[in-house]
Specification:
Layout lengths: L17 H15 L11 H8 L3 H13 L3 E2 L9 E2 L4 H14 L4 H22 L2 H18 L3 H18 L3 H23 L4 H20 L3 H16 L8 H6 L4
Antiparallel strand pairs: 1-2
Helix pairs in contact: 1-3, 2-3, 4-8, 5-7, 5-8, 5-9, 5-10, 6-7, 6-9, 7-8, 9-10
Length: 255
């Protein structure tokens, strides 16, 4: 008895260019600690010999590494490219690329913001000083005034609120993550919000929720403040997520 042909399906393979392998080796060496900020890579000529590739391939790899904020490279520099220290701007650039290129859904981006923002607010509710509480009140005043201007003004005032929360939480990584993801989310739906027939109502509702969050922070109830923040974000953005993904976001609101 004979059997039919094997129906196993394989996926097409993606060719990896040589310069990408160079980038990977340099970044792996950094991750292992074999390279450190301030150190130098070999000269361009030496890199060509070590990697056994063309000069144009090495230059392309250095261009990518420089774009990623990993090295500072000057053509013809006999000392070789310099390894740069970690910077928030380099991290921000990588996160923007991840958020835009890796096919993350709007639901995933909003869900990430709900988690991160809630965590930042919960920490801020314990660490805030009386002076920082006053600053939070000032951001609410700015948000209220911005409603009578336009959505862009309100968005900037809202950004100031969340940047302040991140600062109060004493965690710059939270600030960077929230800033990047917030920017990507708004780039996807800001026009829809700005031109929605109920845009003013949405801004007023958001202001009300922010005021509730500040009240909870003032009383030191971080748990309630975080839940209010997640609810606020869901109410503001949830309508732009497909119905099939709503339940995932609602699950993030619950205590």
């Amino acid at each position: 008895m004979t059997t039919g042909p094997n129906r196993l399906q394989f996926s097409p393979v993606q060719p990896v260019r040589a310069y990408q392998r160079i980038v990977e080796q340099v970044e792996d060496a950094l991750a292992r600690g074999d390279l450190a900020p301030g150190q130098r890579l070999p000269s361009e000529r030496e890199l060509v010999a070590q990697f056994a590739v063309s000069r144009s391939t090495v230059r392309e790899a250095l261009r990518v590494l420089e774009s990623n904020g990993v090295v500072r490279s000057r053509p013809g520099d006999p000392n070789g490219p310099e390894i740069l220290p970690f910077s928030q701007s380099a991290l921000r650039k990588q996160m923007v690329r991840l958020a835009r290129v890796e096919e993350l859904t709007l639901s995933e981006l909003i869900g990430f913001r709900m988690i991160m923002d809630g965590a930042a607010i919960q920490v801020a509710s314990r660490l805030r000083t009386p002076e920082e509480l006053d600053e939070l009140e000032e951001t609410l005043v700015a948000m209220r005034a911005a409603i009578d201007v336009d959505f862009d003004a309100f968005s900037q005032a809202d950004l100031a609120f969340h940047e302040l929360i991140a600062r109060i939480s004493r965690n710059s990584l939270i600030q960077t993550c929230n800033e990047v993801v917030r920017g990507v989310v708004l780039s996807l739906i800001s026009d829809k919000i700005a031109h929605a027939p109920n845009s003013r109502a949405l801004m007023l509702e958001s202001l009300h929720h922010h005021a509730e969050v500040v009240d909870a922070i003032r009383t030191g109830n971080g748990h309630a403040a975080a839940r209010l923040a997640r609810q606020n974000m869901y109410d503001y953005y949830g309508g732009y997520v497909p119905d099939s993904e709503q339940e995932t976001l609602r699950a993030l609101i619950e205590d």
